[in-house]
Amino acid sequence: MLKIAIFNQKAGVGATTTALNLAAACYRKKRQVALLDMDPQARLTEIYKHTGLNLQQHLFKFYQEATPLDSLCQPLRNGLQLIPASPELVKVDAQCGRGPATLQKLGQGLQVLAQAQPALEVLMDCCPCIGVLPLSAVFASDLVLVPVATDYLSIHSAVKMDKALNALQPVLKRKIQRRYLLTRAEKRKAMTTEVELEMRRLFGSEVLISKIHEHAALAESARMGQHVFEYDADSSAAQDFMALYFELQDVIKQLPRPTPVAA
After folding, report:
1. For residue 5, which phi and psi values (nearest 5 degrees)?
2. Fewer CB in a 10 Å sphere around the end CB: N or C, the chain?
3. Residue spans per domain, the chain
4. Where do transmembrane segments lie in this chain (predicted)?
5. Nearest to 225 by CA among 57, 75, 83, 49
């Protein structure tokens, strides 16, 4: 099971848009994909709430009642699966604490889910904060994808993210694999080029070549309860996400493999 956490402490960088449309690109390539909405604001869930989604079966039940993730996975009409979010997720920090047992709980739940659906790939849409939920996603992930909007303030946010991930590595006793994805890019704006050059200076090859540009299709598709491939599979926005999918396949091939446990 491949697990990707889509996470930035800064809001408004396109994390939910990235999660949804990257999942859709994976599905178009015959992958089985589940989305975990880990944001109490439930923006991802909001897109699909009018499509027969059972909003009573949400991620907080995993934390509160130990409901298995496989029981919470709901099929969407477009072939994806979704574990919805709930505003109650804000209670996780207070009710469960930030100890190792809580931080490892999601990873353990995903291991059980992998037994039920071995071919499943999981994309986790994290809330923009440092709390139990995003930290759990980072702990459980094979790769952290950090969306970075092409503005100057977002560079500072990316530096903070890098420091935060590096600080977690001694706890995990491994390098946290991460890639930075430039979003809200505009080809005609000098700022896009300047931000990209600075990001590459700071993070080198961890900055993906693929970029997600500003497209009306992204906002319109979400408004209509669709991912961009449903809205217009031939759009430039869809092409951006397919390019991202193919680049990530090369990244995934290079990820360290877990060391087999001796019998």
Report:
1. -95, 125
2. C
3. 2-249
4. none
5. 49
Q: Which long-range contacts (CB under 8 A, 24 or more apart) does 227-232 make?
A: 227/20, 227/21, 227/23, 227/24, 227/78, 227/80, 228/21, 228/24, 229/21, 229/24, 229/25, 229/28, 230/24, 230/78
97: tokens are 């604490």
- For 20-61, the pLDDT digits (tens) are 999 999 999 999 999 999 999 999 999 888 878 888 899 999
Q: What architecture is the 2-249 domain classified under in CATH?
A: 3-Layer(aba) Sandwich (3.40)
Task: Give the H or E element holding residue 152.
Answer: helix 152-172
d(CA 155, CA 126): 19
Q: Is 39 exposed, middle or buried (0-12, 13-18, 19+ CB in 10 A)?
A: buried
**Token code pair at residue 200:** 């590459």
**Residue 59, CB-side half-sphere exposure with 13 Å CA sphere:** 32
